[in-house]
């Protein structure tokens, strides 16, 4: 049967970024070939496909921002640009033979749990299918967030988000407004500043910016990493170890970050000579509360004569005039939003309907929460890659993704071991206990105490995005599934194998003590 004619699969993976491709590789390495990867676009890459704005690059070193099972000795720079990362993901797709499993142009429109058949009913733009298990790897940086600005719809020029860059529109000689000062904006500003007539940055909140230790990786280094893989592994290990040692300052002793603030201020002072501009660009919150940004060109660009910084956010648009909350007015030909993504209110959650007939968004109305960042209560056989409280403030998300792939692999092994047509559903009490302990640890972190309003926090002010520990600790707590944290579901009327799951006497307990 041709792959596209298949109507039922063992596993359906949503998304073909790092998380989705990693899941696909892990499934194949585990001997599971009965799966599909549902991708809404016409190519792989996820956020590294969507974000193609000028200057787009990673702020994590290349040798750490790659799969451990697919090392790349040919990274060209310490911090690789978007084209190289996207090419790497294309290469992973081909190397591991994933293309036959990928259904492009198949955006998931709805997921509905069928409790009678114990499977998911999946509606996509490319057709319908059912799946025993769904792995959602849509990622938190997939759906752009543009604020509701009065009058924006009547703006006569071009408007686009950084992740939906309009490459058909030239900014040369134009008056351009950039809204936001996050990781995308600090790369866009220096990339477009030399070619625009006037650039206005609307800065609602200044960012802490540190130097970027970037350089070309020499041909000799690349040869060494190819000929002697141990050197490549050592480089990756060193990069990882340094970041593991930094974690305690973020999670337990934020006051120790004062020295890093001094370095950031000195970095700014060297590039920005105007005291008034320096005052505008200096944050009033503890460094690390928002993501620390890395750039050697951002401050020099802001100091150029064709750049203005509005120290307030954009509040209104009147024709081609942009109005800041301080009353300042600026004329513009184009508006570029670098305002981030729907992170704590992921759109996919509105499309997933669980065992109780409610959507994941409805269940998460008071804040996202799931067991070990993977399993939400009431959504059997549904796993999330980069789920709640799995984000990082200082290291590589690929490490977290691989840890969650370990959990996914053991989840599927448990289903096979239990046997028959079954499903695992996270116990509500296990999810609550896991979440309680995570939130307790979060209380003293810089993300909660640093005095800022960041995208790490949801509408209720709760941090539902960041992991309050090391990557090695997360790997430990996601190494295997604890059946005591799950209810085992079987098709009504089907018998249970002795000793298999809660129906055979496994207690309704939790094993979240590792994060206490």
From TrEMBL:
PANTHER family: FAD_NAD(P)-BINDING DOMAIN-CONTAINING PROTEIN-RELATED (PTHR42877:SF4), L-ORNITHINE N(5)-MONOOXYGENASE-RELATED (PTHR42877)
One Pfam family per UniProt: FMO-like
Family annotation (InterPro entries): FAD-bind_Monooxygenase_sf, FAD/NAD-bd_sf, Flavin_mOase-like
Keyword ATP-binding: no
UniProt xrefs under SUPFAM superfamilies: FAD/NAD(P)-binding domain (SSF51905)
Family that this chain belongs to: Belongs to the FAD-binding monooxygenase family.
Segments for region (Disordered): 497-516
Species: Streptomyces halobius
Name this polypeptide is given: NAD(P)/FAD-dependent oxidoreductase
Superkingdom, taxonomy of origin: Bacteria
Keyword tags: FAD, Flavoprotein, Oxidoreductase
